[in-house]
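Annex B. Sample input.
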Amino acid sequence: MQFLETPPERFEGLDGYPFEPHFVTVDPAGLRMHYVDEGPRGARPIVMLHGEPSWSYLYRSMIPICSAAGERVLAPDLVGFGRSSKPTAIEDYSYERHCNWVRTWIEALDLREITLVCQDWGSLIGLRLAAELEPRFARIVVGNGFLPDGSQFGRMRLGALGNALAFLAWRGFARFSPWFEASSILQAATRRTLGAGELRAYDAPFPDDRYKAGARAFPRLVPISPRDPAVPANRRAWDVLERWHKPFLTAFSDGDPITRGLDRVLRERIPGARVLPHRTLAGGHFLQEDAGPELARATLELVGSHRPAS
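Annex B, continued. Sample output.
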């Protein structure tokens, strides 16, 4: 497997991102996963998983709030993103490999009593791993995310012809468009106007097109057909989630047409979601940019109100 490492100088002096880098090797080929690790090491971890085409920079406003409250906060960069290694062939990326890479990271750090915060592809990976590694997870916060098993294409508001065509167009655009700029994609799905330094940070992981295979691969890995190879594992994960009585909070935004309504599906299907004060936050798809502090406070409230007795 051929892969690249983004030159470290591209991450110097990024607005609002003063965190020290940490790395774990997650693949026999030598791939490394970068992660932020803030707060006391002995505290129970809050793991924040990003999606497409962002990286741990997305959580920069939430990490200090949660760590200042005495929590350990870990925000990894998925392989292909941020400061993590970047395989250069689209074919080197699969749903299964992404899950295996994050699983290896969790097990290497021996994380337990995890509070998962996830959005977009962070939810596709995180919810599946929470089910597969259920004893390691204590609670979950989902914002603008879901776990598709090939039968929810209509429920994702993609059943309407316009939305279905828009999603399929996005899949084709991500794979084949000669122009693919992460900062513009982030801005298009964020309600507030990002500053020049923030836009530079979202482009920092990708010096040129050779580094973008992971970002281009993700949309085509979403299992929208029952024949998708990821479907059996995701359905097994749903078997676990439909018996999940641990706290499960939804905090979706009011401005994401793709995932709008899926919070209700999660609350209906997951027992641990039925008695919690779920949130609707103001923002677009990247609600961490529009409502990061609110999402951080909702996470801390969940952790504080459902902490095991010592």
